[in-house]
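Predict the 3D structure for this chain.
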Amino acid sequence: MDKLRYICNGNCEHCKFARGSIYCNPDNPASDSGSRFAHRIDRVLTNRWLGIPILILVLFGIFELAFTLGAYPQRWIESLVDMLAERIRQAPGPGWVTSLVADGIVRGCGSVLAFLPNIFILFFFLSLLEDSGYMARAAYLMDKLMHGIGLHGNSFVPMIMGFGCNVPAIIAARDIGNLKDRRLTMLMIPFMSCSARLPVYLMMTAAFFPRYKALVMIGLYLAGIVVSVLFAIVMKNTKWFRKGKHDDIFTLPGLVVPEASLFWGHIWDRCKDYLQKITTVILAASVIIWALEYFPMKDSQPAAQDNSCLAAIGRWMEPVMSPIGFDWKMNVCVLTGLPAKEAIVSTMGILYRSDEEASLVTTLRDSGEFTAASAVSFLLFVLLYFPCVATVRTLRKEIGRKWALFAVVNSLLIAWLVSFGAFNIIQILTA
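Done. Predicted structure below.
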């Protein structure tokens, strides 16, 4: 068993750290009953047999709540978006203007906005786990695994942060003392499933795996971790990352009651970032996608979707992407996901829109353009190819242009190979 060292961040006569702790040093004979009770909880949460099953159950509960509770406001927002788009479409004015506003802006951005309630619920519980110190316990549970690939358990802390956003997680990895470990950890972080991918997961799992939504979500998160670990094992056997023994002391912060102002501040910051993306990157991507689908015009009418500029771009990618089950529409979706993964949802809102008053989830399910194999392949590709331009820019700043380019090429190759394997295996099993 690894040595475990605790940091008490309470405000008592035995330690002089920040307020809010319910946990003092368990080895301190002066610790009060509350501290001893917290220590007992910690022994359960970090137990070698119970810890990981508890972590999986906690994540399952969070995802299930996000789907169940978030479904109601999600439907309300989708109805409002459809109503607004229909009103705009019937308004007087040039046809291309009303189509741009209704289909490009309102439907494109509205498709992403509809998942805000689900995102808020996930952010609420994930922030609760992080601010209370539970995520640090998750990192400790993974310490043995990290040691098995030649890294310290502390490398898992920025990886856990990557579930929120890869950019600050890469920056947080600066604190890792060993240069090789720091560089490798930064290269592993993009495989962590950041919050930008969540709208895509929520949409696809609700459309194609409604009975197993939470399990599929957990599977995606675990798949990101597994791929990052396998990547690290391979890289640790190269001359660039091979090193000697590691320290086996793991430091845990105390279990704390999250401070309300900081807790809600973290949630607001994440939701604000989501909304800012909708009004900037997603808006720009939606307008561009609409224009490429609308033109070239023929006889003053918009191009048929299959004859549009967008279809030409998607078909240009087909020789590479068709072996993993992608058609031209899926190709365009992953292409628009390069600046920000949320743009995939807005692109689908434009490409798969229906004239009927149906949600995007229902439209996707009834489109007949996805199979179980292609849906899984699409989810895995979105999970594994590099998250966004901002992540690549951060990697370039932290570890140099060469390694940033390596991360882009490597993630695309791994995403294609994993998706290829999953697509063909599922096809064989469902044949």
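The chain is about 65% helix and 5% strand.
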